UniProtKB/TrEMBL annotation, chain A:
GO terms for cellular component: GATOR1 complex; vacuolar membrane. Residues 52-146, 215-254, 273-294, 624-774 are annotated as: Disordered. This is Nitrogen permease regulator 3. Residues 791-849 form the GATOR1 complex protein NPRL3 C-terminal HTH domain. It is a peripheral membrane protein. Residues 222-240 have a biased composition (Basic and acidic residues). It comes from Lophiostoma macrostomum CBS 122681.
UniProtKB/TrEMBL annotation, chain B:
Residues 527-536 have a biased composition (Polar residues). The chain crosses the membrane at residues 259-279. It comes from Lophiostoma macrostomum CBS 122681. Belongs to the NPR2 family. It holds the Pfam family NPR2. This is NPR2-domain-containing protein.
């Protein structure tokens, strides 16, 4: 659980680079056609934590922010100027570039072994350079937007970029991450295997072909041309595949539906048929004799590169998100297609061809790009990818008839933390603790008990899935029957759907941002206007709401009603006939994050009377068993145990009297370690209290055990840790302010002291109690976790349980206790325990009446 | 940085005949295998696979290049110097360092590398700092070794020494100062990236988290900051601070933003008894953590004065508390009163004198004596009860009345502030929403700068009036007093004075009065605009009287409408308008009737 950062891919371009024996490194395609220069991207790196400023004041405060970021930003700017001056500096650079290109050509020659093919590729590129520099010069003078600038991408010379983005084979299937100033190129290079195949166990042996280069050369290149021309080729190929190894092939095509799982032994059975297949393919290609160009089927690597400019603080997070969710998966999918139909290389040549022609004709980039995208599915997929991902959407990529898949960077759908004014803002994010996994117990069953709130209308969703494919009748059936007021379990039962299926569908919908798991909406539950509601969405939401619920109160009216003193939702429903409509409203409001459920949490409060009773009892027992031991006052020890949970552990940890000197000498370090883990917020919120300087007078007291000494081992504390929703993980997602060494001087604002002032340790304020067993000598306390209660607490709870007059309450007391730990919402009790809601309310009220509960209500 | 994050530093060079080579590496063997006895057994990274990024093409030189390989991140700044004196007219080198790939904030190392690269470039251009010591090296290389690092005698090379020193110093001290020659020194320091500071609004209340006054050296040469600091006490809003310190509001904001950026300040909301606070999910942490409760008890305790006040301030505090006992007025208002009375005397972290550990002589023994007493007086259970009884829809005033007994000896403002700081309370702000279609139709145009072309005959009248209004805008009201009075005094004295008193007596004593006429908006006119025709206006104008309040209200042309989109909390509205919440609400209700909805959020 971390404080979420607003989704922001920082994606600015997608590049496809291939390396082939004939053409060398080639930047095949980039999108968008007119890319911002890397230098411009580098300067623009402010995180979007606080959204777009709306208020009057923020304008100047915003502009001011660049002032003190000067340490990085202005340097960056200087740098850009430098770069600019240097590159525009002169012909000299052009010269070296061409020199390098020359050397490169030699290399290419050596590798390719076909003088003709290489000459074709490289000759062109040299011309490109010359043309490029002049064109560039012209453009600079004219100040044209660069729509005809064929030679730079992202402000880099294309050939330089090509070279940089073609890593060595050591990067095969690894993350390729190249940072240029604050821009980063994230790619997943895919190399052809040593045996010349793109997949393990594929048929053709590239090496063989190289041996037989001279013979095969013509045929192979022609075949590729054929591929480039039409899809018919693809079909033909499949047909051939089937003829050569029918069963395996068909199986594998079926499994193509599932992008991630294309590993299941694809093509293993094909080895036998391989040779014949290849032969026949080659044969057919030779026959389909189309010739204009003369290229080799010799791609050795391709690399899809995503260009981001993440803010420094979010660098690791954003790059990782992009690589794990998009870059790698996309590259894998492409490789899979490449293995099947030479997809990447075929498309690449198509694109290269179009670009070449357009460039010679002096066409504009944007026009050409339109053409490319309309012709090449690969280019189109890159464009779709860019458009979707750069807008934090889901990219649906259709590779071919049998294979389409989606990519996204998953987003958080809820958070338990309300950001304060200084933390990243995510207005509209659903605020709730209901999605927080509670410790170790009951994780899985919660999905069953949760309801699914569709974020789109079911009909729209169904339509979307129909577009997809086959088994959607069932899917549509499920989706149509999903209501946010019933738990999945109930829905499944009612409609005879397998629970596992239901859960699978639910998780699928949730992952693809179509639904959210919520506690079933119920009129008896209380809902409040979420403090995290996105008020800036109001202007558009009001008419939408009005159109949808035309005869009902307006959105502002609803919000106004819900935002006064919290009441069960049913009290807003005027009549029974309105119930359904109002529940629809509620679902709508939940969808938009306007409201959230106010949930109730409780702890058991043990009164002094109970403690006294128990203590007396125990003394009696002790007397009965061992009269000599009376002096020990068992109650006293356990009593203080509760008050000073640390004491127990320190006793365990050695039994010698604790003195202040036993305090770990490097308390500061410990704190700073904590701080390093905790977020800045946790430093304020969750971190243990800094010992105030005002204590200490009592430190010589016997019970004065420094809190820090026992804390790590104290079971009490370890119990409390998982619950406390302090954003422990903020560090991973967002930069921790407290890691700044200078900030270790920062004190909690509530217990300020001079920096550097010696921290005196403090103690619990209550002195040890004399062992009188009257209530006045005890203090009320809470049982924080009845499930893990120690012996004394258990006795107290037992005592309380016995004190109920109501039989039913007494009977259910152990069950109730399971939920009285401050982390389980009482609202969830009925579904978890399978009792009626009303009954739960009755039980809780019974306990509450007696004053045994400390109740808090939050989301 | 105690983490020793830099794993290696190396210096590589492109030789026109031998290609890219590592000339120096610290530690030995970290980049290329070395025969040195202290060398690492295996290189951290494979140099051969990354040479094209260490010594890249011209295009990528002179900028920061980083790349990841083998779980390490290599941060380099390739420098290419083009000059005739070098063979092939160029001299390319790269001073790069290696950190763990997963290192979260590696960007500060990038800054260091960039600076080093530029420095070395400068040194090389000035006097051949790098190239001079290469003489003979490449020949040696020829003879001595085939692969890997070049067999410099490590001690002799300045660049090698540089590598060594930078590695050690940055790893140990996060900074270094290395004299190069009599005129050049390398100064490096690692600056962690800081999160961006939030925008500061005039209605926010800053509270310092460290005692800046205890720092020996002046913290800044920013004059605004220095003037503003004394007034930052967790009570004054930004606008109020600007007023007290007599500083420009936007500069004040900026100064406060600086403090937020460096983590010495947090932002609160304006404390008032009309406000609503409710629990966040983090209340569980408070309930379960004894230590936080103790901290809280210390923080919210009102000091006992009965042992005799040793300072005048304490005395007056007691007195004022006694005065207001029956009403249980806030400590905050007292505190603000105190700070108002002696704004310069109280320059500390917080103006309240009972701060634990403030370290002021006279208070120390006192708090000491009372310590036991006080902390036991505030039972943790009471704190829990108090906090958990806060909820949505319950104003602080009501809450105080409900919990009078428990609040004994507790500073209410601090109690609330503590919750806000720790994050288990949040302020439930109030917003006004007017349904869009219900916005006043044509007439409000009179309040905008460009009246629509009304074809009616009244248009002229209107226009002239608007001219008057606009003429008034932005000017000192005095000159135009009469003009406005006659033209625009709408609303009658009754409301005006009511509003005035409301504003004056509003419980938000702490800074509500900050906005003065310059910030005022023409609220009334907008509120009325819906129904007023020019004729009516005129009649009203004749009926109205020239009250001082009226003028203030009409000072500016921007109506209250702009606050009615649900984006502006009443704190903000009141701050902008300079009026009380009651007043604003009343105006809205009158202007929009049932169409104005109020949402607590």
């Amino acid at each position: 659980m971390a404080l979420p950062l607003p989704p922001s891919s920082n994606l600015h371009a997608v590049l496809l680079v291939t390396k082939s024996r004939s053409l060398g490194p080639r930047l095949v395609f980039h999108y968008p056609p007119l890319s911002p220069s890397a230098a411009a991207l580098a300067t623009n790196t402010a995180p979007t934590w606080f959204g777009n400023e709306t208020s009057t004041g923020s304008i100047d405060s915003h502009s001011s922010s660049s002032d003190w970021d000067s340490s990085t930003e202005t340097e960056g700017a200087d740098d850009d100027i430098e770069i600019g001056s240097r590159t525009s500096g002169g012909r000299g650079s052009g010269r070296t570039a061409s020199h390098r290109a020359d050397s490169h050509r030699h290399k290419g020659l050596g590798a390719g072994g076909s003088a003709a093919g290489n000459a074709w590729g490289r000759q062109e590129s040299i011309d490109e350079e010359d043309a490029g520099s002049t064109a560039e010069g012209k453009q600079k003078h004219r100040g044209v937007g660069g729509d005809r600038d064929w030679n730079t991408v992202l402000g880099f010379k294309v050939d330089a970029l090509e070279k940089m983005l073609c890593p060595t084979k050591a990067f095969n299937k690894r993350r390729f991450e190249l940072g240029v100033e604050s821009c980063v190129f994230v790619g997943a290079p895919m190399f052809v295997r040593e045996d010349g195949m793109w997949k393990k166990g594929r048929r053709r042996k590239r090496k063989e072909r190289e041996v037989a280069n001279g013979d095969l050369l013509a045929g192979l290149s022609l075949r590729e041309e054929g591929n480039g021309v039409a899809h018919a080729e693809e079909d033909e190929k499949q047909g051939e595949g089937k003829s050569s190894a029918p069963p395996t092939r068909s199986v594998s095509t079926d499994s193509f539906e599932y992008p991630v799982g294309f590993e299941p032994g694809y093509g293993h059975g094909l080895m036998s048929g391989a040779a014949s297949g290849a032969a026949s393919e080659a044969g057919s290609d030779t026959r389909s004799n189309s010739t204009t160009e003369n290229a080799l089927d010799d791609m050795t690597m391709f690399n899809v590169v995503f260009v981001l400019n993440p803010p420094a603080l979010e660098y690791q997070l954003r790059v990782k998100e992009m690589y794990d969710n998009v870059t790698r998966k996309y590259a894998k999918a492409l490789k899979y297609e490449q293995a099947r139909f030479q997809y990447v290389w075929r498309e690449s040549k198509k694109v290269i061809g179009i670009k070449q022609r357009a460039k010679e004709n002096g066409e504009t980039l944007s026009g050409t790009w339109r053409e490319i995208i309309s012709v090449s599915p690969l280019a189109k997929s890159i464009a779709i990818m860019f458009d979707a991902i750069s807008h934090e959407k889901i990219a649906h990529i259709h590779f071919d008839r049998t294979f389409s898949t989606s990519f996204q960077i998953p987003q958080r759908d809820s958070t338990p933390f309300l950001p304060n004014a200084m933390e990243p803002q995510m207005p509209g994010l659903w605020l709730t603790t209901s999605n927080v996994a509670i410790g170790d117990d009951l994780d899985a069953p919660m999905t069953q008990h949760a309801a699914l709130l569709l974020l789109q209308d079911s009909e729209i969703l169904v339509k979307e899935f129909e577009g997809d494919s086959k088994a959607n009748a069932f899917l549509a059936f499920c989706i149509r029957n999903i209501v946010p007021t019933k738990s999945l379990q109930k829905i499944a039962l009612k409609h005879n759907i397998l629970g596992a299926d239901m859960e699978y569908i639910a998780s699928h919908l949730v992952y693809w941002r179509r639904a959210r798991l919520i506690a079933p909406l119920h009129p008896r539950d209380t809902y409040i206007v979420s403090p995290n509601a996105d008020m800036s969405a109001l202007p558009s939401a009001i008419p939408t709401f009005a159109a949808r619920f035309s005869t009902l109160p307006s959105l502002p009216k609803m919000l106004s009603m819900l935002s006064s003193t919290p009441r069960p939702y049913k009290t807003f429903i005027p009549t029974n006939e309105h119930r359904e409509a109002y529940m629809d409203i509620l679902a709508w409001l939940m969808r938009g994050g306007w409201v959230t459920q106010l949930r109730t949490f409780a702890w058991v409060r043990v009164t002094p009377e109970i403690k006294a009773l128990v203590a007396q009892e125990m003394e009696r027992e002790a007397l009965a068993t061992n009269p000599e031991n009376v002096r020990r006052h068992p109650s006293d020890d356990s009593q203080s145990e509760i008050f000073f949970p640390d004491k127990r552990s320190s006793f365990l940890s050695g039994g010698r009297p604790s003195t202040p000197l036993r305090r770990p000498p490097r308390r500061d370090d410990e704190d700073s370690e904590n701080n390093a883990i905790l977020s800045p917020r946790a430093a304020y919120r969750g971190s243990p209290a800094r010992p105030g300087s005002d204590a200490g007078s009592t430190s010589s007291n016997r019970t004065a055990i420094p809190l820090s000494a026992g804390r790590p081992t104290s079971p009490m504390h370890t119990q409390s840790k998982p619950h406390r929703p302090s954003p422990l993980h903020l560090k991973t997602t967002s930069p921790s302010r407290s890691s700044n060494p200078s900030l270790h001087a920062v004190l909690s604002p509530t217990s300020p002291s001079m920096p550097g002032q010696a921290q005196t340790h403090h103690r619990s304020p209550s002195p040890p109690l004399p062992a009188h067993l009257t209530p006045s000598h005890f203090r009320a306390s809470l049982v924080l976790s009845p499930q893990k209660a120690n012996a004394m607490e258990a006795r107290w709870l037992e005592k309380i349980g016995a004190s109920f007059d109501d039989d039913e309450v007494r009977e259910h007391w152990p069950m109730l206790l399971r939920h009285l730990d401050g982390r389980h919402a009482l609202e969830d009790m009925n579904t978890r325990e399978g009792i009626k809601r009303k009954r739960v309310a009755g039980l809780v009220n019974g306990v509450r009446k007696e004053g045994w509960l400390v109740i808090v209500r939050h989301w | 940085m105690p983490t020793r994050a830099i794993k290696a530093i190396f210096f590589s060079r492109f030789h026109h005949e031998k290609g890219s080579r590592v000339l120096h590496q610290v530690p030995e063997g970290s980049i290329t295998p070395s025969t040195s006895p202290s060398a690492l057994s295996a290189p951290l990274i494979s140099f051969d696979s990354i040479t094209s990024y260490l010594i890249p093409t011209q295009q990528f030189c002179d900028r920061l290049l980083t790349f990841c390989t083998n779980h390490h991140r290599v941060i380099g700044y390739p420098v290419c110097i083009r000059e005739g004196k070098y063979s092939r007219n160029e001299f390319i080198f790269n001073f790069a360092l290696v950190v763990e790939e997963a290192l979260a904030d590696w960007t500060c190392y990038g800054d260091v590398v960039r600076k080093l690269g530029r420095l070395l470039r400068g040194l090389e251009e000035q006097g051949g700092f790098v190239s001079r010591e290469e003489e003979g090296v490449w020949d040696d290389d020829n003879a001595a070794r085939g692969s890997g690092g070049i067999g410099y005698a490590g001690g002799g090379s300045k660049v090698y020494a540089l590598c060594e020193m930078v590695l050690e110093d940055l790893n140990n001290y996060a900074e270094c100062m290395i004299p190069i020659d009599e005129s050049n020194t390398i100064n490096l320091k690692l600056f962690r990236p800081q999160p961006p500071p939030p925008p500061i609004h005039s209605y926010q209340v800053p509270l310092l988290t460290i005692s800046l006054s205890s720092l020996t050296s002046p913290i800044s040469s920013d004059l605004t900051l220095i003037r503003v600091l004394p007034f930052i006490n967790g009570i004054n809003s930004v606008a109020h601070i600007a007023q007290l310190a007599d500083t420009d509001l936007s500069l004040t904001r900026k100064a406060i933003q600086h403090l937020v950026y460096y983590g010495c300040l947090i932002l609160l909301d304006i404390f008032s008894f009309g406000a609503i606070y409710a629990l966040t999910a983090e209340i569980g942490g408070f309930v379960m953590e004894k230590s936080v409760q103790e901290e809280c008890a210390r923080y919210v305790r009102v000091p006992r004065m009965r042992l005799g006040s040793k300072s005048v301030r304490m005395g007056s505090d007691t007195a004022s508390r006694e005065r207001s006992r029956d009403e249980r007025s806030s400590m905050s208002s007292e505190a603000s009163r105190r700070s108002d009375l002696s704004p310069l005397g109280v320059t500390d972290f917080d103006s309240s004198p009972h701060l634990p550990g403030q370290g002021q002589g006279p208070h120390q023994p006192q708090t000491h004596i009372n310590n036991e007493d006080d902390s036991s007086a505030i039972q943790h259970e009471h704190l829990i009860t108090l906090y958990t009884s806060l909820r949505q829809g319950l104003t602080l005033k009501t809450w105080v009345l409900e919990n009078l007994d428990l609040l004994h000896g507790i500073d209410i403002r601090r109690l609330i502030t503590f919750g806000i700081i720790k994050g288990f309370l949040y302020r439930v702000h109030r917003y006004a929403i007017a349904t869009h279609s219900m916005l006043p139709p044509a007439p409000p145009a009179s309040l905008q700068s460009h009246p629509p072309s009304a074809a009616t005959s009244t248009a002229a009248v209107k226009d002239s009036e608007h001219a008057t209004i606009r003429a008034v805008q932005g000017q000192a009201a005095l000159l135009h007093k009469q003009a406005i009075a006659s033209a625009l005094a709408v609303g009658g004295t009754a409301t005006a004075t009511a509003a005035a008193t409301a504003a004056a007596t509003a419980p938000n004593g702490s800074g509500m009065g900050a906005g003065t006429n310059s910030e005022n908006r023409d609220v009334r006119s907008s509120a009325y605009a819906q129904t007023e025709t020019p004729q009516r206006l005129e009649s009203l104008a004749s009926a109205g009287n020239a009250d001082g309040e009226d003028e203030d209200e009409d000072g500016d042309g921007l109506p209250l409408v702009r606050f009615l989109d649900g984006m502006h909390s009443f704190d903000e509205i009141c701050m902008e308008v300079g009026k009380s919440e009651k007043w604003a609400e009343e105006r809205m209700r009158r202007g929009w009737g049932a169409d104005a909805q109020f949402v607590w959020r």
